[in-house]
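Protocol check, entry for the methods section draft. Step 1: assemble the input record (protein sequence plus ligand SMILES). Step 2: submit for complex structure prediction. Step 3: store the structure tokens unaltered in the notebook. Ligand used here: zinc ion. Step 1 record:
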Amino acid sequence: MGMEIGGGVITRGELAEGANGLYGQVGHITLVPDGQLCACGNRGCWETVGSIPGILRRWSAGDSIDEFFHAVRQEDPSALQCLEVTLRDLESALTTLFNAYDPEIIVLGGRLYPYLDMYMEEIRARVKERIYFFVRNRLTIEPATFGSSQNAIGAVALVFERLLTAPLQMLATESATGE
Ligand SMILES: [Zn+2]
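Step 3, stored output:
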């Protein structure tokens, strides 16, 4: 969660890629029918309202996410209202993710996440109210643990995984593209 909202699904220890490498692009689930046009072609994606630019577009009273959360701490009514809608969207998105994937764990991270961490206990409780009662105690939503390095570590892990599972194929591709 940052300038965009992306996602990935690890299943049986491997990153699921889908037919087009788009598996788990959770930022593009529709939250606002007929909402803002998204880069993906859809309207009202979670990314259009829940990313940093999405929040700032909705709040429209400042230019940075720091400024927004400063206004929240000052209990500025427009910022508080925007925060409430943002948290409600997050709650809807996480509920949808839980129902779509039945995951052991949902891991949240990115540049936006540290600002939202203090609301997560409430969000967890709200999502629990919205899923099947018999799995409520199995809902696990946790922050990512790699801090600001998570994108880099994810990219390196992908390369290592390919290098370890199909080294010759990868080296052949590398030397072909290097020419
Ligand atoms: Zn989209």
